[in-house]
Specification:
By secondary structure, this protein is of the alpha+beta class. The protein has eleven helices and twelve strands. Strands 1, 2, 3, 4, 5, 6, 8 and 12 form an eight-stranded mixed beta sheet that branches. A four-stranded antiparallel beta sheet has the order 9-10-7-11, with helices on one face. Strand 9 and strand 10 form a beta hairpin. The protein starts with 7 loop residues before the first helix and ends with a strand.
Length: 316
C-alpha cells in the first residue's frame, strides 16, 4: 500500500511549531504527468494547461541547518552541472519564505539528489518544495501546507503540487492544484532515463513550431480510470501533448518507447517535457521484469522502478 495523500502528519504540519534546534531533513518525490493537455499561449507567455500530476517514489532530500548566511551544497545527480547560486530554485524558495514571513534567510542547505535533471520529472521544482518545507521547520514559521503552496506558485508551475503530492489536477499554468483522492491504490511504474536532458522551454517552443493539435482532450476518462484501479484501463487513458515535440527533438526516444512496449509494458509515454520515458506495469513483479528487459536492451542511461502516488515534501 502506498501512503495516502494526506495523513496525520498533515494535521501536525498545520499547527504552530517552534524553530528546530537540530538539522531538518526533508524528502520530496519526483512527479510524472498522467495527462498533459497544452492549450493556447496566454498573455503572460505561458500555455494554459490541464494536467494530472502523479507523485512517485523517486526522491531528493534537503537537509537544513542553522547558519549565518544562506548557502547551498549538493551531492548526487547533477553535481557540477547545477548552479548553487542565487538563481537555483532552492535558494529562491528559501528567500521567498523568508520574505513572506519576515525571517532572516539564514540556513545551510544540503541537497542529496537522485531525481535526474532536465528529465521531465520536476526535480528542480521538487527541490524548491523541499526547501520551503525544510526552512519552515527550521525557522518555525508555522506556515500551513496551503500557505507554502501559495508561495510555491510564485516560483514555478510544478512546485505547489510537490508541496502537496499524491495525485492532483493542475490547471492554469499548472500551479492551481486540486487533489484527486485515489483510495490508496498503488500504481507501478518503470522509468527509462535518457543520457541527456531536455530543456522545457525548448520543448514548448518546438510544440508551437510544429503547430501540434491537442491529442489529450479533457482528463475525464483518466479520472474515471484512476477510480477503477485497473492498470489496463488506466493504460488506455495516459496522454501527453508534448510527446510529439520531445520525439521531434529526440527521435531515438521512439525506440525506447517501442522497446518498453515490446517488453510487455501496458503503456508508455514521455514524462512531461521529457526525455524520461515512463511505462505502466501491472504490479511490482511485472515492473521488475520490465525494468530488467529495459536494462538488458541498453536503450537508455538508467532504469528505475517507482510506485505512486506518494506524499509531497515531508520532514523525516
Amino acid at each position: 500500500m502506498t501512503e495516502p495523500l494526506f495523513s496525520d502528519d498533515d494535521e501536525e504540519f498545520d499547527r504552530p511549531r517552534l524553530a528546530a534546534h537540530g538539522p531538518v531533513r526533508v524528502r520530496v518525490p519526483a512527479k510524472i504527468n498522467l495527462h498533459l493537455h497544452v492549450g493556447p499561449v496566454r498573455s503572460d507567455g505561458f500555455h494554459e494547461l490541464t494536467t494530472v500530476y502523479h507523485a512517485i517514489g523517486l526522491y531528493d532530500e534537503i537537509t537544513a541547518r542553522r547558519g549565518d548566511t544562506l548557502t547551498l551544497t549538493m551531492e548526487g545527480e547533477g553535481t557540477g552541472q547545477l548552479s548553487l547560486g542565487e538563481d537555483n530554485l532552492v535558494m529562491r524558495a528559501a528567500r521567498a519564505l523568508a520574505d513572506e514571513t519576515g525571517h532572516d534567510p539564514h540556513a545551510r542547505l544540503h541537497l542529496k539528489k537522485q531525481i535526474p535533471i532536465a528529465a521531465g520529472l520536476a526535480g528542480g521544482s521538487a527541490d524548491a518544495a523541499a526547501a520551503l518545507v525544510a526552512c519552515d521547520q527550521l525557522w518555525g514559521t508555522g506556515m500551513s501546507r496551503d500557505d507554502l503552496a501559495g508561495i510555491a506558485a510564485t516560483l514555478g508551475s510544478d512546485i505547489p503540487f510537490l508541496v502537496l503530492g499524491g495525485t492532483a489536477l493542475g490547471t492554469g499554468r499548472g500551479e492551481l492544484v486540486s487533489p484527486i483522492l485515489t483510495g490508496g491504490h498503488a500504481w507501478h511504474w518503470v522509468l527509462a532515463v535518457a543520457e541527456e536532458g531536455l530543456s522545457t522551454p525548448t520543448v514548448y517552443k518546438t510544440f508551437d513550431q510544429l503547430g501540434a493539435q491537442s491529442e489529450a482532450g479533457p482528463p475525464d476518462g483518466l479520472l474515471a480510470a484512476l477510480r477503477q484501479r485497473d492498470p489496463d484501463v488506466l493504460a488506455a487513458h495516459l496522454a501527453n501533448d508534448l510527446q510529439a515535440a520531445a520525439l521531434h527533438l529526440r527521435p531515438e526516444l521512439q525506440g525506447v518507447l517501442d522497446t518498453g512496449l515490446d517488453a510487455g509494458a501496458l503503456a508508455g509515454l514521455v514524462s512531461g517535457s521529457g526525455p524520461t520515458v515512463v511505462f505502466l506495469a501491472e504490479d511490482a513483479r511485472h515492473a521488475a521484469l520490465l525494468a530488467a528487459d529495459l536494462e538488458a536492451s541498453d536503450c537508455c542511461r538508467a532504469v528505475r522502478t517507482a510506485v505512486g502516488p506518494v506524499p509531497g515534501a515531508r520532514v523525516l
